[in-house]
Design goal:
Blueprint: E1 13-15, H1 24-30, H2 41-57, E2 62-67, H3 70-81, E3 87-92, H4 95-106, E4 110-115, H5 124-133, E5 139-145, H6 157-167, E6 172-176, E7 195-199, E8 210-215, H7 217-225, H8 235-239, H9 254-270, H10 272-294, E9 300-301, E10 313-317, H11 322-334, E11 336-340, E12 355-359, H12 366-383, H13 391-411
Parallel strand pairs: 1-11, 3-4, 3-5, 5-6, 6-7
Antiparallel strand pairs: 2-8, 7-8, 9-10, 10-12, 11-12
Length: 429
């Protein structure tokens, strides 16, 4: 009898919530010798890169770039506006709200945590009450996560600004958009966000290594009143650079910048509204499949109300250790990598093996999502994990409906975007 063939050979699919799929155009732009960092193409690209980053963030104000991950952006942002001993309010809706608060504790801030659990968004009435109790305005900032990558909840940032305004509280609104920028709708200026942080490795489609802090004049006024800010984290020279090295307080992340230039071109060529719409259709296809699978089985989406779900990541749960079993099987047998259930259960808790996550952010299209869902169903079938029928049909109907509404080009666009020349393209218009 012939041995069953392994079907993982071929190009793998990394369906985790970051690092996301890297476009071939981005990778090819990065594949080059080290450039001159004192004059020429790379130096000339920088003003356009900063301007186009602000276009994605939907702000007309300031931006700073750091060589580091999202944790670096947290520390950079906090270091510019929070002095040791000052208080911050942290409404946590999963793991990363806690992480933002832990970073604040690390720089000497006093953290007032409101834990809303791991399966629901923040409760604006509860936050309003906490702010109203702060009669002396000791709370200097509210640290919120737009999309929590562990729970997959999306929070109402505009509503949070409305609460601050209604209560008349002067605290800065600081928002983590690491998982959401370039995926879920975010409007920095229109929503009244004072400081926003993000990274390059999710919706911006660039390998990990760069992070960004965006801020408005109100936040800059707080920065100017700070008793001290470390030279490296200080966002002022980075956001007002006149020399190339000032953007980075030293040597630039050269190859990341080439990749970022192409990624920004891709986003602006598609149009940010269209990017959000594409993510919305693909997320709804995943949710439709999960609803069908869940009928009569133990598979559940972590966030029950679709209005509270991110369109970038979906957190799921199966029974027992079936989440880990499914992840292991599809990776070994199909070349499909699903995300671990990060932060949903403590280390040593058997429930950790029930949770897993799907990343559907950045450079993803309709056929990729259908392949992801087909791979999951094959895994559940092979492992004897019960699931409801009709999931792939339900997902296909959502995607077909999105195409009918005029989304066919982005949903079914080719995965790889060719780059004919090793030199980078110019700034987007």
């Amino acid at each position: 009898m012939s041995q069953r063939p392994n079907l993982s050979h071929g190009r793998g699919y990394l369906a985790i919530p970051g690092p996301s799929i890297m476009p071939e155009a981005v990778l090819q732009a990065m594949h080059r010798p080290a450039p001159n960092i004192y004059a020429g193409e790379l130096v000339d690209m920088m003003p356009g890169i900063m301007a186009d980053l602000k276009r994605v963030a939907r702000t007309e104000h300031f931006a700073a770039i750091y060589i580091g991950n999202g944790h670096a952006a947290w520390e950079a942002a906090l270091s510019n506006v929070i002095a040791p001993g000052e208080r911050v309010l942290v409404p946590a809706t999963g793991r990363f709200g806690h992480g933002f608060g832990e970073m604040a504790t690390g720089i000497g801030a006093e953290v007032q945590l409101i834990d809303f659990g791991k399966a629901s968004p923040m409760d604006l009435d509860v936050i309003a009450a906490a702010l109203a109790e702060d009669k002396d305005h000791e709370i200097k900032a509210v640290l919120a996560v737009h999309v929590d990558t562990s729970s997959s909840v999306v929070n109402d940032i505009k509503g949070l600004r409305d609460v601050l305004d209604a209560v008349g509280h002067p605290a800065l609104l600081m928002v983590d958009c690491i998982a959401s920028l370039g995926c879920d709708r975010f409007e920095m200026d229109a929503w009244g966000v004072d400081v926003m942080v993000t990274g390059c490795q999710k919706g911006l489609m660039v390998p990990p290594g760069c992070s960004f802090v965006f801020f408005n004049p109100r936040a800059q006024a707080v920065r100017e009143a700070m008793p001290r800010v470390s030279v490296y984290w200080d966002w002022t020279p980075r956001s007002t650079a006149t020399e190339f090295w000032q953007y980075f307080n030293g040597t630039a992340p050269t190859h990341h910048l080439y990749g970022l230039r192409v990624a920004l071109d891709m986003i602006h060529d598609e149009g940010i509204e269209q990017v959000w719409a594409r993510h919305g259709v693909l997320a709804r296809a995943i949710w439709a499949a999960c609803d069908a699978w869940g009928a009569g089985s133990e598979l559940r989406m972590n966030i029950a109300d679709p209005a509270n779900r991110s369109t970038a990541v979906t957190s799921l749960r199966l029974g027992g250790n079936d989440g880990t079993r499914l992840r292991d099987w599809v990776e070994a047998e199909l070349g499909l990598t699903l995300g671990i259930g990060l932060g949903m259960a403590e280390v040593g808790d058997p429930a950790r093996d029930a949770f897993f996550r799907l990343g559907h952010m950045g450079h993803v299209n309709g056929q990729m999502i259908m392949g992801l869902l087909g791979g999951m169903q094959a895994g559940m079938s092979a492992l004897g994990i019960p699931y409801g029928r009709g999931a792939l049909d339900a997902a296909a109907d959502v995607i077909a409906g999105g195409a009918v509404e005029g989304l066919s080009a982005p949903l079914f666009n080719k995965v790889d975007d060719a780059v004919d020349s090793p030199t980078c393209c110019g700034n987007s218009n």
